[in-house]
Amino acid sequence: MENIFSIWTKDGLLRDKNGDGVIDGTNVWIDLPDYLAPEGLIDFCARLGFETTSLSFCFFEPSEEAVKLCFVHSEAATDIRLENNQLMIRYQSEQELSDLLKLLAAMDLEQAGTKSDVIELRDGRLYAGQLSIPTIDYPNDLAAAVPEINNLSDLWSFSGIGKSNEASPAKLFHMNIGVEKSLMTAGLLREICYFAARSAMYSTEIVFPVTGNKEASLQLEVLEGDDPILELVKPNVLQLRGRKENMAAAAYQLARAKHWSEGGVFGYWEQKHQLSQKKEPPLLFEMQWSDEKEVDVAFDHLKREEDLAGTDIEIFLSEPAEVRRRLEEEWRAIFPQVHSLTIRSAFKAGLHWLMEEMIPSLQPYKEIEIKVREEAGEKGLELPIRWIQELYPADRLIEEEIGLKADLVTYKLEGNLSHTYELYGLDEQGEKHFISSLDVPVSRLPYIDGKHDVYPASSAVRIRKNGVEEEQLIQTDRERFYRFYADKVLPKLRDAISDYHPGQGHTRPLFDRIEIDVWMSEEEIKLQVDEERVSALEALHEDLYFNTLDYFAYLGEELEGKPFDAPGGVHPFMHVRVGEKPEARIRVYGWEDKQSENWVTTAILFNEAGDFSKAALTNDGEEIALSIEASEKPDRHLHPYVNEWLNKHPSYRVLYPDHSYRGHAIPIIECFLDTGEEYDSPLKMTLFKKTIFIEAGHHSNEVSSTPAILQLLERACERSDHLLKEMNIVLLPLANPDGYELMTKLTKEHPEWKHHAARYNAVGLEYSFVRFQETVFGEANIYPEVLRRWAPDTIVDDHGIPSHEWVQPFAGYNSPPRFPVSYFLPSAKIYGIGRLSTGAFRTRHEENLDAIVNEISQAIRGTEIEKENSYWKQRFRKYGNEWLPEVFPIEEAPGIHFYRQPTVAPSYSTLGVSRYPEWIGAEIISEAADEVVYGDVLQSCVEAHIVFDLAILDVLQRARIDVKRQTVNGLSYERARPIQLL
């Protein structure tokens, strides 16, 4: 240390321990005698803490490497001087010593403009020789919001000291610490100094003085009393009271306490109490359903026919192929008088017709044309191309079976076609030949909204004789159960929850869950094309889930003018039971909606040893006392990959900001260049380094994002040894553990279904909608908490899309009506969505998005990802985009789709870039075709996510930031935001 004016730099009392150019520790030994207790040392230590991003409580411990600050009484002067790399403070009185320390804390280095070995206190001011040294101005008004303490559990919060409703890259330390003179000892002063240093470290702005400032927004008063206690006497006013002999021990605990998310005690008593209140919900009601098989209904119809001689019989049944072939043989034997008897599938009838009957006859042709009738129902939810959808993926099946390339199989949509399908072949001479046709029987029933109809394919018996055809529709087993569910179960559930309370259906569920078990004989086959399969029960699973959600959304609109987005969990379990009659069981579990609990910790008691003992809480007059104990990190995590990764990488910091609705601790992983210090300020780190937040597992059936972001971290650090010298990375590996828990149950029986029942949270809520609100859904709190703690420049949310066809016959055959665009088939191996703001910062966000898209395009160029994206783009065009471009949109960038349009990338207030456009630079979503996949396909999706995210890291790593130190209205550090990506 060569200049006394460098005390607040790394050439003075601060240091850069890990060599990344950022102050991350202190370099001082304050040799405070036991007979001294100058109050101004609190201000001095607050400045120490404010100037660093990390610290340990070692200011008062001997260290040969540190700059020693020592104190000598003097009758001549009060000053501080630099001697032999030590700071010597001479003081005439303890009060003058205190004043000197206060002014040193507020010293404005930018305006000092000189070098000196001595700074003297004269007439209440600092002087270097005859030069008056300026101190930082006291602000007339506060530009930044001060974190609030309305609950003692928020004193040490996940985001530092106090808690703010809104996230911000700026945090103001505006506190007054007052210690009653009769209590002040050197031991107590040391602990209060540590408290002040740590509190100031969490902030980017500070106002001096920290003592003797009754106008400060936060007040900590240390007063005489009986047994030691910390009380919140009113919002933002804390009192630590006790006897002189036990105050240092109490302050020791207070200064060192950590939030429960870090494995500490603070606030855990409330969290534990909240978790302990969760009980198994009561059974509201149970219903059973069974019916005769559609097979028996069809057979009975045949038996009732008086004259079947010479007839051609065509039957559609929703049964597996082996059942239909067996029935054909049996019924031909029973009815030998019929001319022909054919049993076709009633689910995806056109596809089965081609697969089972037509493909061998296509061998002679060089091209195939399939004419398809256009759907044109006025009230129907079906798309005009519904019958093309029901053929998917016929062209690829034809290619696999007879070698005719899929692009030589074309569809032609016609409005007045006589049949549902007409099949034509083009021979080597270019002549077109009619091959066959099919008419699909269709049922009709009202959609759940009461405004539209849906037209699912139906079972039927058709009898043709002498040119006359009679058709008898037969409801499939699935349709009869679905009608029962819609007509009986849902109205009963509506009645059961009719006495709901305000807020239910939005921030609290109407019921806990509905469990649906269905046993049916249905087709369940995996096709030899991509990840495609035929599964009528998977389609029913999707219908039961999403249509139930829609039922309550429409009910909310009817009753309150806004949808019930959190009705309760919907858990459809489908069981294939070949050849048996259909049955179902429905169990509905209730939600005991207690009066909203708002427990506030008003006091913390200490035991005789000075340790935390109990917390006193109140809730509208009700009072309880809870024991204080440290939180325990989970032994295991639900996701095996997360569990394995955390066990293998104990060096990374893992925190638990909240628990899910079902009580699962949700981890986040913080990756930054370690300093070895005890306390860190993520917000301050974000000021000096670029920061990215990456979320995975938001929709738990999108299975590749969780392993992807964990592998991403290793890959990124392998590529760049200095990555963490330039940026911080925050990972949320499993955002929705409740959904994942449900998915593990669902996949036991059907491991390759999409399982959208595990998409949203435990009560069917897209929980991002209730971020930044008081809610029982802890999973909705993680994203806001990360933004408060880290203020990231860039947010990436890794998602997924169906890996195979998504259809819902009882919702218009397409993917659900709640989605403005279609997701009925994969559109890419991976694509991107860029969230954009709407105000003054939109241009910057557009520029940043352009930079990201260009980087991702370059990263995938020439890779297998680009090839697969090209393949799926062609598929998406053929089966959707060329017919209905608005429903099947494509926004192209080189090698990848990247969407910005509102129908795909809607903006809403709980998105970071929409809520905080002034400081968040970009918010990106990736979508890989991963619902639900395994093995090589899963790893290809993981790789796609990694390449996508690495490109964003590269863009962010190249960006430049310029941190500025301001001394107007207090001392602050700030940088230009939103960041500019190049």
TrEMBL record:
Any idea which GO molecular function terms this record carries?
Answer: metallocarboxypeptidase activity; zinc ion binding
| One Pfam short name | Peptidase_M14
InterPro entries to which the protein is assigned, alphabetical: Peptidase_M14 (IPR000834)
Q: Name one GO biological process term.
A: proteolysis
Domain Peptidase M14 per the UniProt entry, residue ranges: 684-758
Residues forming coiled coils: none
Q: Which domain of life is it from?
A: Bacteria
What name is this protein filed under? Peptidase M14 domain-containing protein
Which organism encodes this protein?
Cytobacillus solani
